Amino acid sequence: MPASFDDIEIGQVVSLGATAVDPAALEAFCGAFTPGWSTERGAPDAMVFAIWARLDAMAATDWPQTKRLGVDALRWMRNPPPGELLRGRMTIMAKDPVGDGKGVIIAQHDLLDEAGRLVFSCLTRSVFAR
After folding, report:
1. What is the pLDDT of residues 70-105, one digit of tens each?
2. Which pTM was predicted?
3. Are 5 and 128 in contact (CB under 8 A)?
4. How many C-beta atoms surround the C-beta of residue 42 within 10 A?
């Protein structure tokens, strides 16, 4: 999607890319940030969020997004096992011009597993240049 605010359409769906739950990263993450969490339970919620945040950040590097105002309505549906391929997508829900040079985009972000099941979702509000 790299597009200016005016070129973004409500209902537009954008791929955020895909990545697998790396077994070594899962082990390291659990050891550092979720003591007591067994990797047999899959990736803990905090790691699922980190995976989404990485996909989102990598996808947005060339976008005219100037600021992330908020991330809310976070939902965790399941904890993906090591090796599971996760893909991210963003759906534009609304847009609001905020002057001559920028506008706010409200989007739903979903992280899906290999079977297309929802793993994680959230809503974002971001400022995009016009």
Report:
1. 999 999 999 999 999 999 999 999 999 998 899 999
2. 0.92
3. yes
4. 19
